[in-house]
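#structure-requests
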Amino acid sequence: MMELKTLMAKYNSFVLTEKQNADADFSGFAKTKSMYNYMVMKHKKLRFLKALWDCNKYWHEVKPKYIISTGAAFSLPMYIVGKLHRSKLIYIETRAKVYTPTRTGKQVSKFCDKLIVQWPEMLEVYGSKAEYYGILA
């Protein structure tokens, strides 16, 4: 996400992260909000429902037209909430994956509006849904 800071500075951007005190990382180009890391909760279903609830609350605060994610943590619940509210969903697969998808990538590729991959080999993994943009660096 840090590679998108120039783009975020042009628009009213909002970063939802599990990292406490992320304000310093995104200072000057995006507002931040940290969310509780649900991965520490024991019960998976309960943690997912709690994440959905909080993501819905945050969606109503910001009402984003676009949701961009690089994966993991609460990107799946935020994408579900965003899809229900008709936000456009953009997923950027990590450049660390060259031949296989991430778990989050597999989950969100079914319903995201745009799927960006950073390696041409990943076009075969995701098929026609993916677009190759090169390494975002």
